[in-house]
Amino acid sequence: MKKILIIEDERDLAELLVFNLEKDGFTTRCAMNGNDGLEAAFSDQPDLIVLDLMLPGMMGTEVCKSLRKDPRTAKTPVLMVTAKSDEIDRVVGFEVGADDYIVKPFSMRELSLRIKAILRRCDVEQPREQSLLTIGAININTERHQVISAGAEIELTSTEFKLLAYMAERRGRVISRDQLLQNVWSYNDVGDTRTVDTHITRLRSKLGPPGELIKTVRGFGYKMEEV
After folding, report:
1. Total structural domains in the chain?
2. What CATH number did the domain enclosing 188 receive?
3. Angle (deg, nearest 10), helices 108-123 and 11-23
4. Which of 16, 37, 112, 133 is deepest in the core (most CB within 10 A)?
């Protein structure tokens, strides 16, 4: 049974999340502020964390940074919850290591679908024909989840790594945003294509100059190819 940690200061919402997630078969624990949330994450080792952006004392972004710095939670998926839908909030959430975000108000069905999709892509490692992928100055070791770009090892979240490997395996092919949502994020009937754009932007930045190998196909999606 998967464990979900909910870090949310609105008690009514936290109780609603507990009720619905436990009805879906998850076990849950709640923390009402960032410090308690970090303590619970480090001690309980949850399978996924639902993290509110606006928290008393310590903002959700700071909580996420701390989670990513600690080896016990560095790979734990984080679903950021925000009352804002501005691009800047989404970008900041991804920059500090969130795997996805959802905007209040949201339906419990959408929340459940997003959680299950994140857990699926973390649990299921698809067998790859090659464990080593090279495209330009980018070297990807799919077994070790290691990426070398222009001679330097770079740190990627699990979603960023899967996105890069998926595109590298299909080099030269144009891949739509919907295809990426389905195959990288495991979203079939929910998902915001802006999520793809934000991750691509962040991935290019982390890769440095070799990030230019990821080309935008205007109005459709992306492709990865050597210049």
Report:
1. 2
2. 1.10.10.10
3. 60
4. 37
